[in-house]
Amino acid sequence: MGKNLHRKKLFGGLMDAEEYHSKHAFPPNAQCQGCKTRGVITRIIVYYPLDEVKKRDPAFAAISEIDPERFLKLVMQTKSGPYVRISTIYACKQCTPSAEKAAAKGPSWSLVDINRGPGPDKAVSGPGS
Ligand SMILES: [Zn+2]
User: Fold this and answer.
1) Ligand 1 mean position to 32 CA, how many Å?
2) What is the pLDDT of residues 34-53, one digit of tens each?
3) Domain for residue 28, yes or no?
4) What's the 18 CA to ligand 1 centre distance in angstroms?
5) Cα of 35 from ligand 1 centre, angstroms
6) DSSP line for the chain
7) 123 CA to middle of ligand 1, Å?
8) 108 C-alpha vs ligand 1 centroid, how far in Å?
9) Using 50, 70 and 90 to split pLDDT, how confident is the model at 115?
């Protein structure tokens, strides 16, 4: 029998938005990829399908056997199979458009997750500079 899945699920149903955000909250020391400022508003994560990564990088495939715990942290289950987190990029407001453009240039089978954070106005790290 299926489980109840009433809440809106992300990535094919394995995480809901709340779990997702708590798991992937912006680290306080995140820096913009482009200009190295803090105060990032966007996080872009690029995922590749596990099969593709294993094909291209045998060393990565080996990690799954040597260090399964670390490996599992990089893998995200989706409806279309497991994906591996390849890179995480943070960008400030100015750099967001070019960061998004760069991320979109990846292989067509890559999965790009763009997350707009709370923004400087709502940041909890104290008053603005
Ligand atoms: Zn920037």
Assistant:
1) 5
2) 999 988 889 999 999 999 98
3) yes
4) 27
5) 4
6) -PPP--S-EEGGGTEEHHHHHHHSPPPTT---TTT--S---EEEEEEEEHHHHHHH-HHHHHHHHH-HHHHHHHEEEETTEEEEEEEEEEE-TTTHHHHHHHHHTS-TT-EEEEEE-SHHHH-SS-S--
7) 17
8) 26
9) confident
